[in-house]
């Protein structure tokens, strides 16, 4: 076994010993299954297509520097990369966060204890499957909600510093007593309390999510409807 896989197992061993009340043999069984699942998911990943499935495989590339002094010109640098290791580490980090820092970490551990999910499956699971309340999952639901707002139209406008933006308007129907029928009205989306730092508009949406420990304040995720800028604080 390579050093990186051994370090991964040690990392998850410490995490499980901290989070779970399990005997050492059971912890070791989970640790082995989790790491093997991460390694298998790395091999199955689209990012690993065409790569040698060797965590020790190192590639050396020659690249020119982007910044250089004018008289001397760009210098050639040697860059060493481990592409398959990068894929493995990305999946490892996803699983580690899902079990430790994500808002649904406790629920995921409960699912493992109840055998609704198994340790060797974690590496191949999506962010949504690991934690339905995580940011990535929230974004997917946000996309669905945005698609459902078929009554919204956009008009071109100009924001701060001349930035080209789209101003949102909602198309609504109101009953006109004089005409005795419903008439269509186009109403500009009202401003919210948050202002976009990119375009200067206040037509924003936001939601809160617990991304840190329970005794710390919730994180606010915001999006500007005019320029699609996203930020959190």
Automatic annotation (TrEMBL):
GO molecular function: nucleic acid binding; zinc ion binding
Signal sequence annotation: none
Keyword Signal: no
Keyword Nucleotidyltransferase attributed: no
Domain named TFIIS-type: residues: 192-232
Keywords: Metal-binding, Zinc, Zinc-finger
A GO biological-process term: DNA-templated transcription
Pfam families linked to this entry: Zn_ribbon_TFIIS (PF01096)
Protein name as catalogued: TFIIS-type domain-containing protein
The organism's taxonomic lineage, starting at the top: unclassified sequences, metagenomes, organismal metagenomes
